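During the no-cost extension, the postdoctoral fellow (Dr. R.K.) reprocessed legacy sequence entries with the updated structure-token encoder. One reprocessed record is reproduced below for audit purposes.
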Amino acid sequence: MAHAPIRVLVGSRNPVKVAAVQRGLAPLFPGRMVESEGMHAPSGVPDQPMTAAETREGALNRMNYLRQHAEADFFVALESGVDVTEDGPGTFGVVAIGHGDRVSVGRSAWLPLPPAVFEALLDGEELGDVMDRVFGTVNIKQQGGALGLVTNGHVTREDAYAQAMTLAMAPFLHPELYGANL
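Re-encoded structure tokens follow.
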């Protein structure tokens, strides 16, 4: 008997985010069809989150919006943000996954930001717009992202999100190890 496809809703229509979710999830379910679809979901935070807490809140808000407005097996939201640590300013992504009554939150790798880029963010610009201006690109956030630009294409936004997605799935793959703490 064939299994029904696993339906995944992604809290964005950005093709990079939808592709990253598909890429992160599909290998975890061999022999199963995984269908990822993007849907607009408001973050409830500024377009450019400037703290880890704000970024996490945006991802959770998007994921909860999906859960309240649609049906799926998994509800996934990805939110890019910026923060400052002891190592300086950087950017990262937060992934929030809802499945049944459980939620898992994960985080992507950290990319140090050039000082001039961070200054523009403090002035209210969005990272994608700043990177487009600095590198002469158009709509980089729906392509390789800032990560792709500053790593010369060796790591892209999709790569980072796909890895974060896979890591955040661990509690769903091994619920016996994570118990009710999700």
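Helices lie at 15-25, 52-69, 115-122, 127-135, 145-150, 157-168, 170-173, 175-178. The first strand starts at residue 6 and ends at 10. The remaining legacy entries will be reprocessed before the final report is submitted.
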